[in-house]
Amino acid sequence: MWIDREIGVKRGASFALWGLMRFLLLFWRALPFADRFTSPRAARMGMWQAFGATLAFGAFHSWLCSSRTKTATQKLVGARFGRGFYRLFFNLQALVSSIALVAFVVSRPQKVVHRASTTERYFHWAVQLASLIVALWSVKELRFRHFSGVESALDAARNRESSAEPEAQTPDGSDGLELERGPYAWSRHPIEWAPLLLLWATPLLKTNWLGFNLATTIYMIFGVWQEEKRLAAKGGEAWRRYCSRVSIVFGRKPFSGSL
Known about the structure:
The chain has one domain (38-245). The protein has a two-stranded antiparallel sheet with strand order 1-2. 70% of the residues lie in helices and 3% in strands. The model has no long low-confidence stretch (mean pLDDT 80). By secondary structure, it is mainly alpha-helical.
C-alpha cells in the first residue's frame, strides 16, 4: 500500500514537472528575442506545423458546420435538443479548440519574418484596432444571444420552439431585421475579413504566425464561399437584392441607392 502511494506521488510529481517545463518552453518561445536561438530549419518546420494544425482545425469546423453533421446530430439526440443546443455547443467547442490551437502555434519554433519600425507600429496598431472594432460591431449586429446559440438553447430547455439557427455569420433575415445594417451595409462578410486584417496587420510577424495566417486565410475564403452557397439557397429574393447592392468584400455597388 505504501509503495503504491509512493509510486503515485512520483508519477504526479513527474507530470507536474513536465507541465511546468512545457509552460516555460511556451513562455520562452513567446519572448521577442527567442528566435535568435532557433535554427532556420526548425523555424520552417514550426511554420508548416502551425499551417497544418490550423488547416486541420478549419476542416473539423467546416465538418461541424455541414448540414449532414447537423442532421445526424438531431437524429442522435432528438430534433428539439439537436437544433436548440447545436449552435451553443459549436461556439463553445470553437472557443476551447481555438485556445488550444493558439497555444500550439505559440509553442512552435519560430524566427522573425518581419518587424515593423517604431513609426510603422502605430499604423499597424491603428489597423488592428479598427479591425477589432468592426469585428465586435459585426457580432453586435448579429445579436449576440441569437448568434451565440444562447437564445435557441434557452428555448429548447424551456420546451419552446427554437428560433431559426443562423445559416452563416452574416444576416440572413432569420431574426426579422434588415440585412443592410452596421458593417453589413458595406460588406457581406465583415466578421470574416476583419479578423484576417487584424492578423496580417501585426507589427511582428514570425514564421509560426505566418503559417497560421496563411491557413486561416484559406479557411476564411473557403468558409465565405460555403456561406454564400447556403445563404443563396435560403435567402431567396431578399438575399439576391442584398448581393446586388453590397460587395462580398467591401463597398457599395454602383447605383445601389442610398443607405
